[in-house]
Design goal:
The structure holds 2 protein chains of 2 kinds. Chain A has 11 helices and 19 strands. Helices cover about 30% and strands about 25% of the residues of chain A. A 6-stranded mixed sheet of chain A has the order 10-17-16-12-14-13. Chain A starts with a helix and ends with a helix. Chain A is extended. Chain A is α+β, with helices and mostly antiparallel strands. Helix content of chain B is about 70%, strand content about 5%. The relative contact order of chain B is 0.05. The chains are: A alpha+beta, B mainly alpha. At the A-B interface, α1, α2, α6, α7 and α8 of A face α1, α2 and α3 of B.
Amino acid sequence: MKWIYRAIVVKIVLFGIFFVPAIAQAAILYQNVDVSSNHTVVGAGTGSEFDVSGLPSSGVTDIWLYMSNNGNTGNTIFLDTTCSDGHHIVGFTEQSVAGWVHSTVAGGPIGFSSCSPFYIYSGGGGNTVVYGSGGSPFVFATVMSDDPTSFEPTNFTTRIISLSPDDRAVISIGGNATGTVNFAMHAYINANDIGKYLSIKIHFDNIDQNSLLSGACAFGDVAGLTCSNYTFSFFTGNATSSGDFYFASTTVLAQGNYRVEASLDTSTTFLGLNLGFFTFAGAISDIVDHQFVVGTSTFIGNISQNIFSDTNAFLNTLPATTTAAMAASCNPLGGNFGIRECMTFLLVPDAGQMNTALTAFRTQVLIKQPWGYLTRFVQILSTSATSSLPSISYTFDPAGPLGGDTWNIDMNSMVAGGGSLLNTITDPVNHQTIRTVAEPIVKFVVALMVIFAIVMDLTKVSHSLSAKKREQD
Amino acid sequence: MISALVINIIVLILGVIFGWLPSVTSLPAIGGYDIDTALVNGMGYTRTFFETFWPLSIVFDGFLVLMLYFVIKIVIRFFLGHRSPTA
């Protein structure tokens, strides 16, 4: 009986350790959406022509565009669209830089209601469409109605800004068996996240599995980047700079249903990133999933696509548990009654509530004496701040063989030299560095050892072994 | 809403119970030696070293995770006593 009780309690504890934080982690994802800001991201898109939603229907006097690489020095860049209140062409003369460009709308204020589509083109060379052309020059545009430079970097959070192909896009291949698909991603790294462990990836699947994806790397081999199992890792390591991150490539795909996922995770440490729920390291994650069809969709692919969309739509409602709309779902006399939404509203705390509770727990309980010393100790241990190593200087005894010599040992140079040796050695076949080859193995082994130690402790195996050894002694 | 309310009430009660205790912002100096500054500097040096020799960083993070597990175990034992599955 005691064992049954113990097993139940162990399962509850494991549930608490693994499942509940996993949900909390999922909820944290939505903190990256900057909906609380007074500044409005009014559109971002991909393709030579694109649609944006959420645009102000009136009162727009200024427009900002983020130009990743316009490559058209000397030519004005135009944003061109037809809306319900007319045809708008907004020119940007600050065209020679990659970055935010601003224009005051002539004859404004104007509205952007029911505009479709948007074009961005260069004024030189016969109004060449430069946006999303996949090569150079190309432009990834984020259209904003507020000055983005005024709130960077504190409010412009680390996140994925755009991903293409668009969700539910149908890519025409004109009756052919295969077609060329353009992949593009625009991510932004906030300056506050410099020094944190960062991972940016794109992963895609042929979800109806009606065609075998050829080759290990969907986007071809790119020097210095790793690609395996249809996951393309752009960067994994400590973030050293902030700003925009762009990716654009094409690949040939057979017709069918596909899913592409861009993920961006940051944490103070590697294990904080991978086991964020253990360390409460505050990993910031942003994941964007798009599903698209190349040519003709399949029955199985459509089912998979719909299940995935419905599940995501439900998960997206979880953070909004405190909104009036969710509260209305509990009113049996109201038109929005839904038992699933109501239960979610009642039982699932949203990320904001959890953050408030955790912050209060830290500031009101965890920092109190005497356990506050342990909290402070853990806080110091988990910091990601670095310090320059000290230099050591030694002067020898004037009477000795090195009489009066002074040796200066620069620890920073020594470590950098050793690291350079360690991280530049490559294998002779694939020319990958030791880190690229060995890091996943080291991570796996360490994670396995930690899990093994925890399981050993939970199951009392280590205690039994100790008792058996004592008996033998 | 209900779970958030329960969590907030628990935090509120704990805050009221322990509110009178002094807060810890830094580790104390022992015999004139500032342990807090020494540890902060030491971890800074260690992190600098880890940035270059990355395998050590992974091992250290694994150690931290294991330590966190033992802290959780101590907390569970504190609240559940002999009924704790880890007692």
